[in-house]
Amino acid sequence: MVHLTADETALVTGLWAKVNVKEYGGEALGRLLVVYPWTQRFFEHFGDLSSASAVMHNPKVKAHGEKVLASFGDGLKHLDDLKSAFAELSALHCEKLHVDPQNFKLLGNMLVCVLSRHLGKEFSPQAQAAYEKVVAGVANALAHKYH
User: Fold this and answer.
1) What is the pTM (predicted TM-score) of this model?
2) Are the beta carbons of 12 and 134 closer than 8 angstroms?
3) For residues 41 and 76, what is the distance between their CA atoms, to the nearest angstrom?
């Protein structure tokens, strides 16, 4: 559960309507793989990840980033019960993929950076604070099966 004020909820949902899921998702995942290269081990089957340019232009990274961000967007509809909303993905990432749950927090940080870059002044300090609450809640929900 994410505790947002009515103003924070309005900021999050209002700005989300402006998000280009395809573009921002690929960029957020690409940045994760570049800034934290050890996360690439989960994506070795994506082909060339040998340089920042290769990662950022990799069509499989872009496609998976879009998928990840679409799931995040779906989660925004369930801010009052993120653990249930992300239960299946939590189980998948824990039991089958064995993803380090810390990576969810790192990806959330990358998403905040990408939103700031694209939304500019609209991504106010208040919006950033609200989104930081949301990405922390989503990361916690995705890590739920690990506990």
Assistant:
1) 0.91
2) yes
3) 28
DSSP string, 19-74: --HHHHHHHHHHHHHHHSGGGGGGGGGG---SSHHHHHT-HHHHHHHHHHHHHHHH
24: nearest Cα among 135, 126, 133: 135
> Angle between the 21-35 and 59-75 helix axes, to the nearest 10 degrees?
110
H or E segment and range at residue 48: none
DSSP code at position 97: S
What is the full per-residue pLDDT of the chain (147 aa) written as tens digits?
788 999 999 999 999 999 999 999 999 999 999 999 999 988 989 999 999 999 999 999 999 999 999 999 999 998 888 888 878 887 876 777 777 888 889 999 999 999 999 999 999 999 999 999 999 999 888 887 776
Question: What type of residue is 53?
Answer: S
Cα separation, 90 vs 83, in Å, equals 8
